[in-house]
Amino acid sequence: MSDVEVSAPGRAGRAGRRVEVGKLEEFPVGKFRILKVESREIGVIRMENGEVHAVLNRCPHKGAPVCKGIVGGTWPPSDVGKLDFEREGRVLTCPWHGFEFDIDTGYEVYQERPARLKKFKTDVEAGTVVITI
Ligand code: FES
Question: Which of 4, 23, 32, 102 is the Cys-Cys partner for 67 at CB 3.0 to 4.6 Å?
């Protein structure tokens, strides 16, 4: 079985095409579910706080299927002898070269000239997740 699921075609709108991609409970907390939406692969994740994010499954660095990376936290620069860990569950680490992306903003966390994930607007309407592409 493919790990990419196919969703229904969307409805056209002025601000973009709205696509219903499934019931909220179909999206596990803290893990991307990758959908094929028309010609795009989009990863949808439900966060612990109930937010839903949708991300193009293509890393802005070299094109890896970034949504197959690890969702976790990050170790920011810190003083010698001190190790901090933060943003648990809010950072996506690319499976190819380890760039870390903030799931909230899409920005790469530590690069001098940060790249950014392509994100899509999401809404939950009557328990259904809707993405605007
Ligand atoms: S392709 Fe994602 S970090 Fe290089």
Answer: 32
Is residue 2 scored above 50 in pLDDT?
no
Average pLDDT for 16-40? 95
How much is the average pLDDT of 13-39? 91
0.85 exceeded by the pTM? Answer: yes
Letter for the amino acid at 63? G
Contact 103, 29 (CB under 8 A): no
Q: How far apart are the CA of 83 and the centre of ligand 1, in A?
A: 25
Q: Domain tally for the chain?
A: 1
Note whether 55 and 66 are within 8 A (CB). Answer: yes
Domain that holds residue 10: 4-132
Q: Is the CB of 110 under 6 A from ligand 1?
A: no
